[in-house]
Backbone:
């Protein structure tokens, strides 16, 4: 059992016993005690508490009652007999500002004293029938009554629709059968120009080039559209478009927000991971598993990056906010975990588990136990900057080094080295945490390569000594195979109580304490100094003292911590002998035990040769790639936080998946977090949510609305599916026929007649019958997303820079973007890169992206707002980015040298809106150009090469709805 | 079976036209829309689909039409401004633990000794309200002001406390109060933003997200204006010749009209087209708003526009612009503080000079705003709110600063629906914790909404499965200050 919960459970056990005793003996209280209750306690409860916490309350506050003894005990508000451990007492004493009660003002001292006395007596209360009306949370009943928890099924018989044969797209059979039933005839197929623009924008986020439009319009072959779709699915622009949809779900950001907007190191590696995964069509079930446990499951080495991409997937866990100076780090941890659970459950399951942080879910089959069972996975995990091995070259170099070392060790063994005493530190004022003398890491975990698989032991050869010398036993050593290897050594978690940590070290590196998984101070220490130290001992043994400057960690218990010993320097190593805890000065340096310089000087030349080989092998170790990722800590279950506060300790909850989805059957890991089991459960074929939620998301992006419109919430408060059988059928098809391939499902959808229909409105009658187009009698007209809009402007202007991947381009800062943590701004045009590559700093989000509804990265947003505001017009009318691009486009037109004005205008229409202008449109554009020429007194030849004139028309084209909307 | 018209392109019936033509069909469409879109919490959501900024009826008769929020970024000290604590002098230099008993964790954990206010306090007005020498001008207005001396916050750290004060939640991504008001009441002016932030120079910790619309539609987000000649991003046409822009918008309008006809009408498209005309008007109305040349010299001097201390002149301009905005129907105006060089109202050290400079910047302009609103009759329909995200400790941080104190601080309100010259709530004799009538930020929000005619429990928006409120599940009215 994790230490953090031992005390809690002991308390709980006590209180349970006490309850049982009282419940078992009705009438156990004396008359005097009951009189005390009736005269001193009940009136106070009635006057000061019952307006909010009784069955008479108009609105129950906080979800608990104070009008029966049982209710008070059930809500863990009082530990009978334990004044100091009773939340009720804490609340009336105003000790905790989060729940100081009553809120209107503190009770008089004598009343507080009476309440204390009452608790001490064991809560005397007369026998009485309890108040009625408590609604029982029945998870199974809720599960049974809501569709989303049921397994999706293939339709037993596919519906029949007029005019559709057996080979017709299944989607159309469902959609058109339903339309026929309602007596609505669906619209016709969109014309070819509309179709290629729609499908190109939907699949790649960029408009088709005029040549592509022309080719498709003129291609009469029956498979022209399918070939177009296949080309777009394979386009290198596909991944960038669909990755951005995904980033909305995982609240992708590159800074932590709050006061200083501190950088999240390597966040963009995750963005690149998603683009590649979408491009490569990594099966969705694998994609989910990589997100949850990519550091634990079988690696997936990418052909281009040559590293294990799965690890990078886990970076999303840490895209939460963080502050630089929380006054309560434990609450801060609970808030971070809350955000992680919120994003996890909405993104992958389409349910709102975070609603169950403080109470059982108000509507869905999710209990607060479910919430804290998931929280345990995160309490058992840590943030890491992962070490990735490009092309496996580090591993190859290390293997050679290991085999050279093994040869040396074998030779050394033959010499029969005399034992060397490990250092013995005898210091009563401090206590030992780790001596590294046990021959194993004893619960310490390593990442990277530097620390090997165990501390040094007796009779181990000092491979770099060039001699027959033994290494000092009982130390963790990051340079046994040379300095090049890098890595981190993490301690098991411990209860954080002591003021100081003493580490006896030699060499160069970093040592630090992580308390309650809080890491922001590592990036900007500010108030959290003393938790980390750079180490450089100049080859001497030294005690390094870590001593947090602040008092928050001490005294109020329940903080968990671990140590990290880091060697990221390819030219140095670090040795650590012992770790001790205490409140005093550092222990004295022990006398260094005698380590033999050489046990057989005659053999030294042979060992010198081996050392040389070892160095040569190690020197070939390349630098690792780094990425933001998660890694396992020791297994640790969470306890129930009663009413969401970590100080109110409930029972221990083993890590498991949601009860409603068979979570009880997943046994929690005993050795690590167990995230790999969680991942398996999340995408099991028997899980009804995974496939439905994802298929619905794909649908949403292709129609503008999901079959279930509330894409992140399939719970009771979500909207029902418009075509439930279709969604089920597609979900099963996705898992089985399509083997979780996003591209296969996208192709199914865009190949349907439903997708290809015109978006023009039908007759009044049809529009009356289906005004919101729920039944899909036509396609929906949609405004471009912010990214598609900006990227399309770049593409049409000829400024699009097709460079993929890499560190973000800094966002352009305007004079209105001020505040702490203001980063260095970037160019107005973002170097012409696609919007997905522009930096996402929480406090300095791109105004253009925000104006056109890119979500603020705080939680999962699967369905963006679709606002329609004058600020959007102002942006397109007056923003320098738009003007500059109009000028560039104009420059290109003039350079292209098309001297036929009509042709030039027609070309502009095809570029911007994907079709030639009608006669009227052409006339309007031409007269605009002529008017400008007249105004500026230009003759025809001058007009043809006048940048100003053409930039005006280009700018107008960026503003027309035919450009900003997808028909 | 009913049929689509054969040619979609010619079905030029917009929904609006359709509704007018088939009067009897109205109920059907409205009902269908109601059934089809339950994604919003309140029926209000129906209205905002069509025109998010159209004025909407309140829940009850409002006392005020607009809010001016004087945001004192950083947390002014209650015991140095409006919450007079003579007892502090008796305990000068003593350890806080000895005097106060339990001392809560402070952000810097560098607690010094009990520190009385370095400023003198006097009583003012009929009401005899205590005001320190930091606010000599505001002191002249105390009979119009209701002080709440028992405000509390849940957060002792700026960012979370700022988000909490602005959005009712201590995290990023929630809608700001001004956005909620826009959502609840719509706008009275179709060419100015309904929620405006006049930025004096300091953007509070947490950034622009303090003024955002969160999960509400972007229509409600705060527009950040600077008190300069170019007050708003992208408000200035870039065309050298104004005729060019008009001609361009006319061309765009003609092409858009053709598209609307060709698709058979579409509400979103029509709104987008209308937005261009609004935006075009804003290009005039926003600079016109910022142009104060028409104000009398007396008025300018009253606000302090002529002050040599630059920050006073800046805040004076902000206050004057705030009045001009509410005259024009802007619903919610927030003013952020000018940068006085040292720090916002966040004097962890050098309390004396830091608070003096901050007060000097805002005192005269605030008093002028109250007086000007009063003499023009606007004060009756405007709610003015003053305060920061928390207060400061009655004991020193280090030797001459004060740390954050969320356990008791002072805010004040004046104007529509507010009873002047009263005090609600009470802090202990050290101004450290609340002893009577404890109010939370949720209560502040509930009261503000109430004065604007909104029942805070009924203003909801459905987001990810919950009907969410500005006041979460909390909030009660601060009744002693209501007229």
Residues:
């Amino acid at each position: 059992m994790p230490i953090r919960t031992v005390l809690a459970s002991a308390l709980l056990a006590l209180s349970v016993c006490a309850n049982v005793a009282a419940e078992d003996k009705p009438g156990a209280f004396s008359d005097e005690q009951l009189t005390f209750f009736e005269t001193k306690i009940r009136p106070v409860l009635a006057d000061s508490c019952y307006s909010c916490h009784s069955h008479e309350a108009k609105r129950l506050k906080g979800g608990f009652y104070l009008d029966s003894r049982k209710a008070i005990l059930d809500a863990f508000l009082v530990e009978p007999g334990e004044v100091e451990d009773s939340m009720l007492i804490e609340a009336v004493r105003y000790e905790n500002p989060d729940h100081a009660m009553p809120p209107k003002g503190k009770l008089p001292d004598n009343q507080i004293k009476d309440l204390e006395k009452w608790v001490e007596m064991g809560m005397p209360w007369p026998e009485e029938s309890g108040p009625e009306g408590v609604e029982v949370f029945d998870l199974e009943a809720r599960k049974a009554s809501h569709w989303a928890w049921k397994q999706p099924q293939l339709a037993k018989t596919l519906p029949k629709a007029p005019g559709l044969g057996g080979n017709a797209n299944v989607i159309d059979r469902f959609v058109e059968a339903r339309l026929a039933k309602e007596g609505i005839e669906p619209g016709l197929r969109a014309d070819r120009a509309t179709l290629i623009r729609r499908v190109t924008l939907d699949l790649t986020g960029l408009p088709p080039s005029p040549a592509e439009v022309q080719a498709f319009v003129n291609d009469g072959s029956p498979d022209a559209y399918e070939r177009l779709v296949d080309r777009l699915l394979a386009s290198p622009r596909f991944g960038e478009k669909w990755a951005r949809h995904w980033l909305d779900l995982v609240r992708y950001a590159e800074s932590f927000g709050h006061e200083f907007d501190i950088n999240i190191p390597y966040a963009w590696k995750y963005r690149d991971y998603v683009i590649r995964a979408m491009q490569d069509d990594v099966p969705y079930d694998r994609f989910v598993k990589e997100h949850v446990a990519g550091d634990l499951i079988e690696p997936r080495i990418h052909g281009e990056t040559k590293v294990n991409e799965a690890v990078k997937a886990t970076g999303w866990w840490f895209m939460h906010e963080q502050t630089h100076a929380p006054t309560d780090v434990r609450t801060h941890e609970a808030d971070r975990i809350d955000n992680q659970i919120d994003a996890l459950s909405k993104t992958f399951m389409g349910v709102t588990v975070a609603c169950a942080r403080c109470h059982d879910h108000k509507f869905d089959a999710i209990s607060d136990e479910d919430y804290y069972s998931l929280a345990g996975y995160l309490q058992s995990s840590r943030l890491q900057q992962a070490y990735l091995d490009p092309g496996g070259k580090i591993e190859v170099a290390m293997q050679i080094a290991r085999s050279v070392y093994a040869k040396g060790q074998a030779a050394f063994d033959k010499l029969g080295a005399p034992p060397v005493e490990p250092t013995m530190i005898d210091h009563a004022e401090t206590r030992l945490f780790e001596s590294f003398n046990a021959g194993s890491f004893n619960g310490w975990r390593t990442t990277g390569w530097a620390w090997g698989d165990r501390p040094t032991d007796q009779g181990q050869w000092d491979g770099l000594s060039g001699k027959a010398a033994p290494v000092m036993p009982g130390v963790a050593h990051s340079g046994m195979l040379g300095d090049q290897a890098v890595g981190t050594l993490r301690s098991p978690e411990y209860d954080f109580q002591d003021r100081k940590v003493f580490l006896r070290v030699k060499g160069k590196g970093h040592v630090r304490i992580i308390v309650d998984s809080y890491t922001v101070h590592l990036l900007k220490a500010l108030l959290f100094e003393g938790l980390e130290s750079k180490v450089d001992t100049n080859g001497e043994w030294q005690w390094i003292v870590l001593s947090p400057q602040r008092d928050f960690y001490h005294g109020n218990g329940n903080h968990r911590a671990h140590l990290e010993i880091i060697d990221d320097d390819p030219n140095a190593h670090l040795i650590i002998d012992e770790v001790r805890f205490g409140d005093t000065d550092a222990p004295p340096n022990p006398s260094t035990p005698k380590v033999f310089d050489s046990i057989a000087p005659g053999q030294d030349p042979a060992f010198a040769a081996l050392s040389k080989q070892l160095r040569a092998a190690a020197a070939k170790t390349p630098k690792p790639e780094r990425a933001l990722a998660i890694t396992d800590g020791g297994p640790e279950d969470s306890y129930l936080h009663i009413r969401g506060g970590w100080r109110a300790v409930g029972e221990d909850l083993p890590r498991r998946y949601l009860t409603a989805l068979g979570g009880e059957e997943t046994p929690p890991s005993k050795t690590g977090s167990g995230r790999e089991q969680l991942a398996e459960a999340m995408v099991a074929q028997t899980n009804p949510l995974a496939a439905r939620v994802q298929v619905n998301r794909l649908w949403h992006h292709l129609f503008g609305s999901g079959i279930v419109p509330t894409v992140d919430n399939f719970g009771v408060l979500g909207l029902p599916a418009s075509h439930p059988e279709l969604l089920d059928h597609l979900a099963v098809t996705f898992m089985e026929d399509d083997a979780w391939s996003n591209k296969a499902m996208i192709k199914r959808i865009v190949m349907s007649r439903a997708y290809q229909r015109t978006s023009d409105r039908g007759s009044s009658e049809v529009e009356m019958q289906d005004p919101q187009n729920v039944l899909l009698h036509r396609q929906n007209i949609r405004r471009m997303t912010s990214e598609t809009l900006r990227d399309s402007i770049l593409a049409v202007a000829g400024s699009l820079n097709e460079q993929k991947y890499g560190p973000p381009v800094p966002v352009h800062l305007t004079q209105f973007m001020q505040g702490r943590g203001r980063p260095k701004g970037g160019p107005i045009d973002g170097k012409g890169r696609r919007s997905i590559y522009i930096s996402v700093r929480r406090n300095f989000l791109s105004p253009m992206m925000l104006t056109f509804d890119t979500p603020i990265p705080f939680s999962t947003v699967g369905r963006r707002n679709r606002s329609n505001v004058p600020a959007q017009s102002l942006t397109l009318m007056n923003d320098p980015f738009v003007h500059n691009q109009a000028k560039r486009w104009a420059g290109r037109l003039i350079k292209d040298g098309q001297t036929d004005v009509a042709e030039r205008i027609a070309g502009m229409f095809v570029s911007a809106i994907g079709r030639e202008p009608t006669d009227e449109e052409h006339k309007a554009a031409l007269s605009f150009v002529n008017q400008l020429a007249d105004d500026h007194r230009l003759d025809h030849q001058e007009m043809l090469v006048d940048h100003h004139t053409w930039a005006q028309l280009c700018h107008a084209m960026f503003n027309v709805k035919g450009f900003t909307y997808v028909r | 079976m009913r049929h689509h018209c054969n040619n979609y392109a010619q079905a030029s019936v917009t929904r609006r036209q359709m509704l007018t033509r088939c009067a009897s069909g109205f109920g059907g469409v409205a009902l269908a829309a109601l059934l089809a879109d339950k994604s919003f919490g309140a029926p209000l959501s129906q209205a905002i689909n069509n025109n998010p900024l159209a004025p909407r009826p309140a829940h009850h008769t409002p006392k005020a039409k607009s809010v001016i929020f004087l945001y004192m970024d950083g947390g002014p000290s209650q015991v140095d401004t409006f919450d007079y604590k003579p007892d502090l002098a008796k305990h000068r230099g003593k350890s806080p633990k000895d005097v106060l008993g339990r001392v809560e964790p402070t952000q810097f954990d560098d607690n010094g000794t009990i520190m009385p206010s370095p400023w003198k306090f006097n009583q003012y007005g009929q009401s005899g309200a205590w005001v320190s020498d930091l606010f000599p001008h505001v002191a002249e207005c105390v009979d119009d002001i209701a002080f709440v001396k028992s405000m509390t916050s849940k957060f002792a750290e700026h960012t979370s406390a700022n988000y909490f004060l602005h959005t009712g939640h201590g995290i990023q991504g929630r809608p700001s109060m001004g956005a909620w008001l826009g959502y609840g009441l719509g706008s009275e002016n179709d060419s100015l933003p309904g929620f405006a932030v006049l930025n004096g120079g300091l953007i509070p910790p947490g950034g622009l997200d303090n003024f955002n619309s969160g999960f509400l539609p972007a229509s409600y987000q705060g527009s950040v204006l600077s008190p300069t000649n170019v007050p708003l991003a992208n408000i200035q046409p870039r065309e050298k010749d104004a005729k060019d822009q008009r001609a361009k918008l006319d061309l765009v309008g003609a092409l858009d009209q053709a598209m609307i006809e060709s698709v058979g009408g579409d509400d979103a498209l029509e709104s987008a087209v209308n937005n261009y005309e609004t935006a075009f008007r804003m290009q005039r109305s926003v600079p016109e708003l910022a142009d104060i040349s028409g104000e009398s010299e007396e008025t300018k001097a009253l606000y302090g526009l002529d002050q040599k201390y630059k920050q006073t002149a800046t805040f004076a301009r902000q206050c004057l612009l705030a009045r001009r905005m509410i005259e024009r129907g802007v619903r919610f105006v927030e003013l952020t503080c000018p940068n006085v060089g040292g720090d916002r109202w966040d004097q962890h050290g050098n309390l004396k000079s830091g608070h003096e400079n901050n007060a000097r910047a805002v005192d005269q302009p605030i008093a002028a705003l109250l007086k000007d609103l009063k003499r023009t009759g606007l004060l009756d329909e405007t709610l003015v709110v003053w305060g920061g995200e928390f207060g400061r400790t009655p004991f020193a941080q280090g030797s001459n600063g004060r740390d954050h104190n969320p356990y008791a601080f002072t805010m004040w309100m004046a104007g529509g629906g507010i009873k002047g010259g009263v005090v609600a709530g009470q802090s202990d004799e050290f101004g450290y914790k609340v002893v009577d009538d404890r109010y939370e930020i949720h209560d502040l929000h509930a009261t503000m909404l109430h004065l604007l005619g909104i029942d805070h429990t009924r203003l909801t928006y459905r987001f990810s499965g919950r009907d969410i409120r500005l006041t979460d599940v909390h909030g009660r009215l601060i009744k002693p200050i209501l007229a």
About this structure: Residues 3-121 of chain A form one domain. The longest helix of chain A spans residues 393-415.
